[in-house]
């Protein structure tokens, strides 16, 4: 709580009503006929006159993301409606205010402050205390003050609101067809901020001096653009320019530039479009040749592209949408939503080959809306659906600068649509899917970053650098963990440079100098190598991969670690602890864990990974190894065997015989790949989890699954041999592949419930946490939920804030490594049924 009493801010920024502070006892209220904070018209009586009898004063402090979102004008209007005096301002941790007036009105102010806050406000705490009545004449907005050791929360970029869109398409409005219209309820924030505090001079909008009309709105607390830092109009804001690749004069002006884009799309061209957080590569999603050309140029063999549409009606014609999908699509975050594609929807099959889902998003900025609407007077209409994929080559970071885009995208795009507002922070689109009616993040980025996760344990200044794939990092201090936007797979120097720039930006923005840097244990990860070089004297803490997954789920659910959980972590690859003869590739783990450590209470049985990456790329090769290791026949009639040549079979057989080039793995992700190949679904992959994704799609078409069941040993080892043997027999007998695929999913869910029940019985731990990339599988998650519900009194935790994949890894690393107080190492804290103790 801050010091109460007389405020030290003597100069008000905004007088209460009309430029003059009201006389004592006069109630401040909006004087221009606009709607008030609660929707009541100015001049309407808001309270009985008896409320003016007994005056009280309250000091209220609000923390969270309450700056740059219209919170002070909201408080100003609310106070005016209720006839209250006092002031509101910003400081280093949020907003502060004092309100004075009749006790019932002050009570209503406090109640409505949180309930009716602006759409972009994210309130964490509201604290209030009595203050001395001062007899203020009105309510004012005062200058901001610095707060030592305190940090405000940077708001994310959000979709253009309905009010701004209405202005864009209103011929009588001065912002008619202005692509960059925004207000305190919407628009860019994170991607344009250079530094804090969040004021226009500290953003990339500093290059655009406000015209007199925008300045009047900016300084009027009754206007929804009061202190909207990106405010602009056609007179003073950014401008569009269209240019063909290779040079030329180009086309300037909104309508001319957008009409040129429509013409390019109509001729089958690829256009690089500069958006909010970077460039998109776009084309007409209904044209096979255009999509194929983009795929070939980008080097993206089969990985799905996202598509963008203007509105929900168009989306409904392309994919199946339930209430949760509709809510996600139309939310202010506007993520890409994975939804089941409708047959004959008209979208090219090349957009998402062999994938039953489409990643679809609604146009989330004024520019995107205009691009998907006809240009007045132009004969060429826009397509109803466009591909909108990240503006980069595969495995490179997204382009943000115009010169950078020209250099890196010049041979990918036929033309460019640019604007002159700089993008300071790259931020790719977020991706979600609906699991059991609830939104689950697949990629947490635009719309969500950089909002922090509230931590259940206090952390010392910590930087957690995440993993290798789906890279994010987490900068944490005290009770907050700021998770970065999605950066990409750290597979090259360009992406590592983007990672380093983002780390530096976060550290500067939040004034955090980490004393601890947390990394994965894998010696080959570029994130770990970077940390070892750039730790700057901070303590390096290595955290086991799957322990970090469990900790991330614990942290997002607010668990303080006083009680352990049963963490079931299924993924593709994770560096295991040095047990026995050496580290193995883990990925099918059952851990009893808290933040201090874990016991390995079970795992998928070890199976051979012959040839490392070669086996990952060719599931058919891996299928041969798994069949051989389980003592099963390599029958030529099996699809996986038919997909391999004689030479490959001999190589795999020799590797299994000698052990040369073979690494043991417990990966559940690899087992999904093997089953996909055995069923003839996918024998070779071109992107991560492709085989598993397609296997899920096939399984979803079956009415009921084939009866399959894993073995479960008393030491907690899950044995896949019975499943593989039954699958091979059923395939040779001509069983339906979809039923077998669903049966495999059923069997995995059954194994999850059985091993969880076994460990719970042995330890008394009743909370089960499901994490790892395999649990992005919506079908598997639904089946696991049902199986665990039938297994007894077990509480289930699933990811809702950070992704279950490696994009959520950094949060768990920070929670483990950064805590200020940790218990002493213990070799055995829970009477596990089996397994090996370990500490991160």
Task: Write the topology of this structure.
Blueprint: E1 12-14, E2 55-65, H1 71-82, E3 85-91, E4 94-102, H2 103-115, E5 122-131, E6 139-142, H3 162-168, H4 212-218, E7 240-244, E8 251-252, H5 254-266, E9 271-274, E10 279-284, H6 288-298, E11 306-309, H7 312-316, H8 323-330, E12 336-340, E13 357-362, H9 366-371, E14 385-390, H10 402-409, E15 415-419, E16 431-435, E17 438-443, E18 453-464, E19 474-483, H11 493-510, E20 516-520, H12 526-534, E21 539-543, H13 545-556, E22 565-575, E23 585-593, E24 598-604, E25 607-610, H14 613-617, H15 619-629, H16 639-642, H17 646-658, E26 662-665, H18 668-678, H19 690-699, E27 711-712, E28 717-719, H20 721-732, H21 737-763, E29 767-771, H22 778-789, E30 795-797, H23 809-817, E31 836-838
Parallel strand pairs: 3-6, 9-15, 11-13, 12-16, 18-20, 20-21, 22-29, 24-28, 29-30
Antiparallel strand pairs: 1-6, 2-4, 2-5, 3-4, 7-8, 7-15, 9-10, 10-14, 11-14, 12-13, 16-17, 18-19, 22-23, 23-24, 24-31, 25-26, 27-28
Helix pairs in contact: 1-2, 13-23, 15-17, 15-18, 18-19, 19-21, 20-21, 21-22
Taken from the alpha-carbon principal axes, the silhouette is globular
Mean pLDDT: 89
Total strand count, please?
Answer: 31
Task: Please tally the helical runs, counting DSSP H or I stretches of 4 or more residues.
Answer: 23
Q: Strand order within the widest sheet?
A: 8-7-15-9-10-14-11-13-12-16-17
- The radius of gyration computed from the alpha-carbon positions, rounded to a whole number of angstroms, is 29 Å
Task: Write the CATH architecture name of the domain at 240-419.
Answer: Alpha-Beta Complex
How far is the N terminus from the C terminus? 37 Å
Percentage of residues assigned to helices: 25-40%
Sheet bearing the most strands, described? 11 strands, mixed
* Classification by helices and strands: alpha/beta
Low-confidence stretches: 1-52, 823-828, 833-837
- Beta-strand portion reads 15-25%
CATH fold name of the domain at 240-419, please?
Answer: DHBP synthase
